[in-house]
Amino acid sequence: MPSRRTFLGTALATGAAVALPATASAAGHPRRRRVPKESISIQLYTLRGIMGDDPEPVLSALADIGYRKVELAGTYGRSAAEFAAVLRRCGLRATSSHVGIDGDLDQVIADARTLGHRYVVVPWVNHATLAEWRAFTARLEAAGDRLRRAGLSLGYHNHAHEFAELAGVRPFDVITAGTTPRNVHLELDLYWAVTGGVDPVAVHRANFPRVRQFHVKDRAADGSFADPGTGTIDFAAIFRAANVTEYIVENDQPRDALVTARVGYDYLVDLRF
Predict the structure, then answer these.
(1) How many Å apart are CA 123 and CA 69, to the nearest integer?
(2) Residue 126 neighbours by CB under 8 Å, 6+ apart
(3) Residue 130: CB atoms within 10 Å
């Protein structure tokens, strides 16, 4: 992870500040860095509509595009061992997965080991009261401790609602205050952060070095989802200020999932910041 000195001297003030065309806001900055190819992944939720009963052709197409990593959101009716075999045949590794923590954690750990995960990430939680958020946060910390002891890192993936105040407190702050960096890291979804009105750079700075994964999901001018690099989020500015281990392409509602995969991969490979 980079030192704090690599961050921008002043964080962007609002979510709107990062929602600018990348080519314009990056002007004047030397573009010397790039996203390492080995750090690029894709969330398979993006491709759920075309997986069908046989995911192997889709996974093979991802490998042909250039991906070597994927993040799972289920194993499409297959056991962890069966899906791991499919991934191996396609030349892919599932380094991360979206999994809940309120089931059998022993099974979560066993499946993660079989699939070769480094990260296990809680993808979605929403509660009506702060008491419920605090109870969830306690469970998250306890689960993170168990997964860490098993050689895994447990993360939390945000949406926009965690940044909306509930009784004067943001659920996101409940999570970060009630868990330890040792046991729970953050997978920051850049689309949902901007939609929630926060600056991803400021979130990264405030939680350094807990943000280890980015969901690289773009936002169109009307607020809808866009393929990476075709919307309004200034990824170059974010990436200059915040280094992570995985940059995960995603579009929740792609028009053509394989086009999204290609556009996202090429954008990250070609981007200079």
Answers:
(1) 18
(2) 159, 161
(3) 15
